[in-house]
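In keeping with the milestone schedule agreed at the kick-off meeting, the structural modelling team has produced records for the first pair of proteins. Each record is given below as a sequence line and a structure-token line. The laboratory manager (R.T.) confirmed that both were archived under the project's standard naming scheme.
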Amino acid sequence: MHSIDAYRTHLNQGGFDEVFGQIHSCARINESRERMGSLLHQMLENFGRNEICFASAPGRTEMGGNHTDHNHGHVLAAAVNLDCLAAFSPAQGNAVTILSEGYNPIIVDISDTEPREEEYETSAALVRGVADGFRKLGLNIGGFNACVHSTIPAGAGLSSSAAFEVLLGRIFSYLFNRKVVSPLEIATVAKQAENIHFNKPCGFMDQMASSYEGILSIDFNDPVNPGVTRVEPGFKSESCTEGFYGTGYKLCVIDTGGSHADLTPDYAAIPEEMFQGAKCCGQDQAKRLTMHKILENIDAIREAAGDRAVLRLFHFLGEDERAVQQAEALHEGDMEGFLRLVAESGHSSSDLLQNCYSPSAPKRQPIPLALAMTELTLGSRGVGRVHGGGFAGTIQAYVHESDFHRYSQIMEKAFGMNSVIELSIRQPGNEFLTIPEAGAEK
């Protein structure tokens, strides 16, 4: 840890620029400088001249495996350059105090880490939940002060909550556990905090992608200890190349502005129908089902769970295999094959999984509208798919660089300014932003 003055000096000398380029992209270096400078000022104003450190945790994008994780399938996910950035310092006692501009202060006494119903769906619940997870793993916890700034838009499908949870885990790991807590342990604690303390039945992909970083092929066959393979794309690119690995395409998500309110039954129905269908085939989940097995039991599935359950099982079979194929295409540097698989994933989600709009609100279809506009605008020079849970929220698009400006203008006319969010992939290795010791390499 170092003083605020030391951080400010290193920042003003450009000492963090290389790291900023790696985790936030070269285009955002000036913004990164401003963020760190603002957090330094806030720490000084609110907590005095203490020794501090900086931690960062990224949002994530789902690249493949739409609604496969909850049935023990494969996903392809990646950490992105939008993040939660925190300046933090230890505090006396067991109080965690977190300040974030524009939000009410978060103050939690972690002497008691049991879930509290009155804290459901609050940031305080996540603080208490992460502390509880550390305690149950036999790890150390304690009080700290932090000032946080996030560039992850809330509700845009980029997992701002998972990033905040992972950020908390990294701070507890740094301050009280000599930075030895593994990415899997932090992701596990983060998921449990969201499930139990925050009271949201999320899957595991978001926390895994934020905690491990890079592009990950994840096998949830063992949901407690998923298999994680980091995918190294076979494209030639410079470390600071904007766009998607120098392929000529840009990766983005489009926030359609659709509300997730009242959509919990739609989300819950997807795994439930898959579970019901699998049960008719003698299994607890869709993993390891075959087309032959589904067709052999199709009458029982239709009677017990309905026709949509059969279609959703068809989606799972194709999407589970497709997520693995996407990882292989990236590794081999086959962008054409990768984009073809992205398009197949999008059509499967729309036609079989049926998570592009809620049947309870048929007049509100922002995701199908965004997908149709993407296809009509880009033709063969890009592709879009529903992103994440679906029913409302975001789509993901790969857009040829020559078309990106025109595409953004068209989409923002329909969905509002800044609705097109350009992303780059964040690689692992910069969880903490520290000042090199004298004589050490940067």
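The second protein of the pair:
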Amino acid sequence: MTSNQVNTTPFSANGKEYRPPAAPVVVICMDGSADEYLDATMAVDRMPNLKKMAAQGFRGMVRGALPSFTNVNNSSIVTGVSPAVHGICGNFFYDADKDEEVMMNAAKYLRADTLLAAAARAGRKVAVVTAKEKLRDILSHQLDGSIAFSAEKANQTTIEKHGIVDVEKLVGQRTPEIYSAEASLFVLRAGVALLQRGMADFLYLSLTDYMQHTYAPDTEASLAFYEAQDAEFGKMLDLGAVLGATADHGMNAKIKADGTPNVLFIETMLTEKFGAGFRVICPITDPYVKHHGALGSYVVVHVDDPSKVEPAKRWLSEQPGITEVYGRDAGCRILEQPADRSGDILVLSARDVVVGRTAAHHDLHALDGTLRSHGGRYEEMVPMVISHPLNPAYKRKAAGDPRNFDIFDFTVNGTH
């Protein structure tokens, strides 16, 4: 793909202007990739392309959006703004108006335009490829006519809905099992194929964190997985792409010394202490139960009796394993949450602790291995790697408090 084939028309989204380079742009969300995973794999020289990116371009740590969950951070990455603005505050929430607990995996919940749609309107050939189908609708918001599909449902694409058919033929691989390394590698291989064929020049590739939920950074399965990712990075770089990579959240073991899950069932605890009237929502809840059993390090609590809120907050803040407890107003301000979709109490837990609802609400037998999860403060800091050198203005930004949802800004505006 030559530079004169690439549209460089500027575009704006949510108050930020983007001036794209005359080259393909690829941004990758390496789901669940705590910096330890990159360190471990580069330490044994199995990510030469990422190592080259870090040496020639930029590598640093950036602050993600809280709660450190998939839907939240992917929505922030494609809008460039916090959850308080775009409205996606979890994978799952309690809709008080309808008195329903529902999945937050549809574009109707998004309150901000995406920069992907803005890029498409400006003439870029946009493609979105996700591992998980749950993200496709949100990320493809207003992307009429552009390519947007998931690896999970790659064999079900239509021109009308996804902007593409015969994805398996394009990639040269059958639709992968979602609980596998291949689900993420399929996304990257699809990105390479779209670049090679000139079908896209502005791509967002969002992986899945099954491997990080299942394997620690220094295991052979993890090292091989990151080595395979790196091979696809190299192909994109060879095709002339400006490449930016970050993560939606980190990952930590949430276990006791004996290896069993380290869980606090918050609704049970509050009911035993204060009586009935508490509804705990676990925003990590999604269809992928083998990942985490709907257990993460952040929950919100809806309280029927307002007089119980302050006593419950004080008591929770004193419990071992609980690190932060906020009321709605303070919590939404500090954690950048949409107040109308949050709870009366917001709770975060320690690095090695997950918070849940009741034992009956979580099937720990469904876990595929030990319990590794995310959602809280200890999975907030994530890596950001840019393939090309940053210009002086963005070097200064990188020295401040960059966010993972600045990744398009850095990749598009910071490299020329």
